[in-house]
Amino acid sequence: MSETTYTGQPGPEDIDDGVELESARLDREADAILLGDEARTPGPRPLHTAVREDALAARDWGRARAERLRRAVEEGPMQATLYALGLGVVIGLLIAR
Q1: What value does the mean pLDDT take over residues 74-82?
Q2: How confident is the model at residue 13 (pLDDT cuts 50, 70, 90)?
Q3: Can you tell me the mean pLDDT for 64-91?
Q4: pLDDT at 59 over 60
Q5: Alpha-carbon distance values, 14 to 20, 22, 25 (Å)
Q6: How far is Cα 33 from Cα 37, in angstroms, rounded to an integer?
Q7: What b/e string do you get for 62-78 counting C-beta neighbours within 10 Å, with b at 16 or more?
Q8: How many other CB atoms are found less than 10 A from the CB of residue 5?
Q9: Which residues does 73 contact at the CB level (< 8 Å), separation at least 6?
Q10: Is 17 left (phi over 0), alpha (psi -120 to 50) or beta?
Q11: For residues 69 and 77, what is the distance between their CA atoms, to the nearest angstrom?
């Protein structure tokens, strides 16, 4: 009989498939990308830098949404008008309560 000691349940790092799976390769590449982002910003950013970056992201998001809204109104002006009218009526009824 061989002497082995029981060490408990095996963890994920103890399992060796020996087969290179596509998902494993993609996981490693995703981890490398995430670590690359952390390597570029090695610590807390100054507050003004964080606020500036967030403001730029919010501006870009707002511009994209406004452009999408403009296209929707140009493609269906009657539908947009009726939605605005209906929303105005609902808000008016809620405020009148």
Answers
A1: 93
A2: low
A3: 94
A4: yes
A5: 16, 20, 18
A6: 6
A7: eeeeeeeeeeeeeeeee
A8: 4
A9: 80
A10: alpha
A11: 11
